[in-house]
Design a protein that fits this description.
The chain is an alpha+beta fold. It folds into two domains: about 70 residues, Alpha-Beta Plaits, CATH 3.30.70; about 90 residues, Alpha-Beta Plaits (2-Layer Sandwich), CATH 3.30.70.920. It is about 25% helix and about 40% strand. It contains four helices and nine strands; from the N terminus they run ββαββαββαββαβ. It has an eight-stranded antiparallel barrel, surrounded by four helices.
Length: about 170
């Protein structure tokens, strides 16, 4: 399995929470049709949907948040992270069954060494450095939730510079 990565800059990840009686399928499809939305991923837990945005600059993303997300009926709350750096593993992971999104609060002073170690982990399919290097949002894939939990608890949490980890289950096709 290759650990080579493709690195890019820009874009944003937006976690959305629907109101209690909201039609999440309708919210998901209406947002996915918006210009600038690259993907809309249903989630389980604290957040309902994770959006991947593409924009030329921060002003374009800010405008998207203010004009489009705020206007969608049924969105109770959202949290947005502009991506300073994104890496995507080139290895094939489509056969794996479980998928998790983890938000790491990190010591920004150890960011370079930490991201190098995270890039080498075969379970990580994508990493996003956000919040001026104070957080890293990871997407992990594995054969089971237990396998991913073992990687998060037994490896990622123990890395120097990782202060806190919050895990979210992602619904995959």
């Amino acid at each position: 399995m290759s650990t080579q990565t493709e690195i890019s800059n820009g874009g944003a990840l937006v976690f959305l929470r629907g109101e209690e009686d909201a039609d999440l399928a309708e919210i998901n499809s209406s947002l996915l049709l918006q210009d600038g939305v690259g993907a809309s991923i249903p989630m389980l837990g604290d957040w309902s949907i994770l959006l991947r945005l593409t924009a030329k600059d921060r002003d374009g993303m800010k405008q998207f948040f203010e004009e489009r997300i705020s206007a969608v009926k049924g969105v109770a709350d959202f949290e947005a992270y502009c991506c300073k750096e994104t890496w995507v593993a080139s290895g094939e992971k489509s056969e794996l069954k479980a998928s998790v999104c983890a938000v790491l609060e990190v010591d920004s002073g150890s960011l370079a060494g930490l991201t190098a170690r995270l890039r080498a982990m075969p379970e990580i399919v994508e990493g996003n450095v956000v919040d001026c290097g104070r957080r890293i949002i990871l997407f992990l894939r594995g054969n089971s939730s237990r396998e991913i939990n073992d990687v998060i608890g037994g490896e990622i949490r123990l890395l120097p510079g990782v202060l806190r980890v919050k895990k979210f289950n992602v619904m995959v096709n």
